[in-house]
UniProtKB/TrEMBL annotation:
SUPFAM superfamilies: Ribosome recycling factor, RRF (SSF55194). GO terms for biological process: cytoplasmic translational termination. One of its GO terms (cellular component) is cytosol. It is found in: Cytoplasm. It comes from Actibacterium lipolyticum. The keyword Protein biosynthesis applies. This is Ribosome-recycling factor. Its main location: cytoplasm. Residues 24-186 form the Ribosome recycling factor domain. GO terms for molecular function: ribosomal large subunit binding. InterPro entries: Ribosome_recyc_fac, Ribosome_recyc_fac_dom, RRF_sf.
Length: 188
């Protein structure tokens, strides 16, 4: 059997480990800290025209900045009712009036919520580590098959060291990304 048939595709293993890292970065991106969302106002009902009406039926809800939600009330006479509904909603947001526009600045996250988010980030990182280890296991399985097909003991050792180096580098990247994300979350 030719030596080329006994080699392991390190580029494929590297690509798969990089895929695990890319998935981790995408999961980290979904961990927004203190970000405003128009959907946070959906449960609020406004006393309008003698009945309870959803807030999005008396005005336009926008998110102009990451930490600001605005409600542009269509009927000028409804501004105070919308403001009152937001104050009494229990969201902990203090509305600010500007004509028919109600601005809602979103406060910073509290310490407890930040700690919860760092734990979620750690879980995402552990999933990425498991994915990297699974790629390593596949590489080692390929090496076992190659060894039974006639690969020398020395070549087997060299290739297994290469696979282990790829794994160590990928896990180090995961750990570094986790540390960076946790610092970002805990930053006030």
């Amino acid at each position: 059997m030719a030596d080329e048939d006994l080699e392991i595709d390190l580029d494929d293993l590297q690509r798969r480990m990089d895929g695990a890292m890319a998935a981790l970065k995408q999961e980290f991106a979904s961990l927004r800290t203190g970000r405003a969302s128009a959907s946070m106002l959906e449960p609020i009902m406004v006393e309008a025209y003698g009945q309870k009406t959803p807030i999005n039926q008396v005005g336009t809800v926008n998110v102009p900045e990451p930490r600001m939600v605005t409600v542009n009330v269509w009927d000028k006479s409804m501004v105070n009712a919308v403001e009152k509904a937001i104050r009494e909603s229990g969201l902990g947001i203090n509305p600010q009036l500007n004509g028919t526009i109600i601005m809602l600045p979103i406060p910073e996250l509290n310490e407890e919520r930040r700690r919860e988010l760092t734990k979620v980030a750690a879980q995402y990182a552990e999933h990425a580590r498991v994915a990297v280890r699974n790629v390593r296991r596949d590489g080692m399985d390929q090496l076992k098959k190659a060894k039974t097909a006639g690969m020398s003991e020395d070549d087997h050792k060299v290739w297994s060291d290469e696979v282990q180096e790829l794994t160590d580098a990928a896990i180090a990247n995961v750990d570094k990304a986790l540390e960076t994300k946790q610092q970002e979350i805990m930053q006030v």
